[in-house]
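Q: Is it fine to ask for two folds in a single conversation?
A: Yes, each is treated on its own. Send the first.
Q: Here.
A: Result:
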Amino acid sequence: MENKITGLKEHFILCGFGKVGEEITNTFRAEEVPFVIIDNRPGCIARIEQADYLYLEGDATRDEMLKEAGVEQAKDLVAAVGTDTDNTYITLSARGLRPDLFIEARASNEEARTKLKRAGDDRVLLPHNVGGQHMAMLALRPAVVDCIDTVIYSRGREMQLEDVDIGQNSRLVGLTIKATQSETGVTVLVIQKQSDALLPNPPDEEIIEDGDQLIVIGTKQQLAAREEALETGKPSR
C-alpha cells in the first residue's frame, strides 16, 4: 500500500472517514479519481479496509503524515475530521507545506468557518447548512434540483458538468464562446473572470481570456475526447 501511495500524483487527500468523509469517498470512487484517506480511529480504519481504499493510519494534523500522503503532489486536500480545532491544524499544516494547494474543510458553525478561512482554507462548508439549503431548494424548485442532482451525482450519467481553469498556454485563450464550443463540442454555461465577475450564459462573441474559469456541460464522450483542448495550460489550484 505504501508503494501505491508514494506513486500518487494529482490525487485527493481526505482527512477523516466519518459520515461526511464516507460520502466524499463514495463520490471520489464514482468519479474514479485517485485519493488517499488519513484517519486514526479503529472503527473508521476497519470500514476503510472493508472498502479497500488506500489509507494511512495516523494523525492528519502532523506534517509528517501529510507528507507521507503525498501532499507535495496532491491536487486537493479535504479536512473532514470531527472537530473544528483539528481541521484548523490540518489546514495550517497543509498550507505551510503547499502554499498553492486547494484546501477545503468542514465546519460546525459560522465562527469556526471564519477561523478556517483565516487559517487558509479555500472553501469551508457547513454540512447542516448545505443539507438544509438543498432541501429548501428541492421544495421550491424540484425539477431544477432533480436535473442538477442527476447531472452531478447519478452514477452512469450521460451528461457531466466540469470546471475548466484557463491558463496562458491554453488553446482556448483568445477564442470566442462560439469558436470554443465548435472546437470542444461542449457548452459553456458560465464564465468566472479573474475579477470574480460571473457571466452566465455568455454571448457567442465573448472572448475567453487567461485566468478565466469555465463551467461546461457535455457528454462523457465529448469531455473525454476534448480533454486536451480543455485542459492544456491549466494551472494547478
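Q: Second one now.
A: Result:
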Amino acid sequence: MVVFAILCAINTLVRGGNLFVPVAAGIGILIVRWRGRSLNWNQLVAPLLVMAAVFVLTLLPWTIRNATVFHEPIAVATQDGITLYGSYWPPQRNGKLIWGTLPGTEDPAIVAATQTGDEAAASNYLRQVTLTRLRENPGFFFD
C-alpha cells in the first residue's frame, strides 16, 4: 500500500487529473474487502488509512512549495482554471470548435488571465470567468 500510494502521488503530480485514481482504487479495495466479510474493521480500513497518509505525505513538499511561491495552498497544480475554461470554450478554426485543445491568445479571457500575474492568479481568473458564464447561461450545453 505504501508503494502504491507513492506511485499514485507521483502520478498525480505529473497529471493533476489523476488525483481520482487513488480515490477510485481505494473505493475498489474497500468494496472487494468488504464483500469478503472475513476481515474485521481494522483489516478493512487500516490499509486504506496507510495509503491515504502516505499519499498526502508524498504531496506535502509540493504543496508547501506552492504555498511559498503562490502565497496560497495549492495541493497539486495550477492548471484547473484553464482546463475548466477550455472544456467549455475551446478554440475555433473555420467556425468549428476544436475540442481537446486549449484556447490561446486569440481568446480575450486568456489574454486577460495572462495579465493577472502568476499561474495561480490566472487559474483563479479563468475559473471565475467560467463559473460566471455558466451561471449566466445554465443551459449552455443544451442550447
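Q: Anything structural to flag on that second result?
A: Two points. DSSP finds six helices and two strands in the chain. The mean pLDDT is 86.
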